[in-house]
């Protein structure tokens, strides 16, 4: 099991921060190890996505439902794939007109013991790198 939580105040308005995280279709362009995202269903309040990830010789995909609570929260409901369970939660709080507090939480466990063993050495650092990629994306836009 891997759990990771990060709180950070970013020097951007809440609508800009939320928009970057909600724009799941563009994740492959800036998110490490995310190789492809296919939108399976799109509604006003949620998106069903198939996410393909790859690292070295590991290539996996998973299906999830991403719930969008405009400028407040984004949560992921895991449907199927290589995990025993997967929880992802983004919370956004306006600190001021141009500052947003982001609270990110991720908790998961791979079903396969082989995946757990293979990824155990670098997984926590990889998750931190992925969260940092969102901030770099904000800086570049």
If you had to describe this structure to a student in words, what would you say it looks like?
- With 141 residues, the chain is an alpha+beta fold.
- The chain has one domain: Alpha-D-Glucose-1,6-Bisphosphate, Chain A, domain 4, CATH 3.30.530.
- Helix content is 24%, strand content 52%.
- It contains three helices and seven strands; from the N terminus they run βαββββββαα.
- A seven-stranded antiparallel β-sheet has the order 1-7-6-5-4-3-2.
- A hairpin with a 2-residue loop joins strand 6 and strand 7 (99-110).
- The longest helix is centred in the C-terminal third of the chain and has 18 residues, at 123-140.
- The model has no long low-confidence stretch (mean pLDDT 89).
How many whole angstroms does the radius of gyration measure?
15 Å
What order do the SSEs take from the amino end to the carboxyl end, as H and E? Answer: EHEEEEEEHH
If helices are DSSP runs of H or I spanning 4 or more residues, what is the number of helices?
Answer: 3
CATH superfamily membership: START domain
Kindly report the average pLDDT value. 89
Tally of discrete structural domains: 1
Shape: globular
Helix share bin? 10-25%
Per DSSP E runs of 2 or more residues, the count of β-strands stands at 7
The proportion of residues in beta strands is over 45%
CATH class (first level) name = Alpha Beta
Give a short account of the largest sheet: 7 strands, antiparallel
Secondary-structure-based class equals alpha+beta
Assign the CATH topology. Answer: Alpha-D-Glucose-1,6-Bisphosphate, Chain A, domain 4
């Amino acid at each position: 099991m891997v759990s990771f939580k990060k709180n950070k105040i970013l020097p951007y308005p809440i609508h800009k921060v939320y928009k970057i995280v909600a724009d799941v279709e563009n994740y492959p362009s800036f998110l490490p190890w995310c190789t492809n995202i296919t939108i399976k269903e799109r509604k006003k309040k949620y998106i069903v996505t198939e996410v393909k990830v790859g690292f070295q010789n590991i290539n996996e995909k998973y299906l999830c439902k991403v719930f969008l609570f405009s400028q407040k929260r984004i949560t992921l409901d895991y449907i199927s794939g290589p995990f025993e369970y997967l929880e992802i939660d983004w919370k956004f709080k306006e600190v001021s007109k141009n500052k947003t507090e982001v609270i990110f939480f991720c908790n998961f466990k791979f079903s396969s013991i082989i995946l757990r063993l293979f990824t155990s050495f670098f997984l926590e650092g990889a998750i931190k790198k992925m969260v940092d990629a969102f901030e770099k994306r904000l800086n570049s836009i």
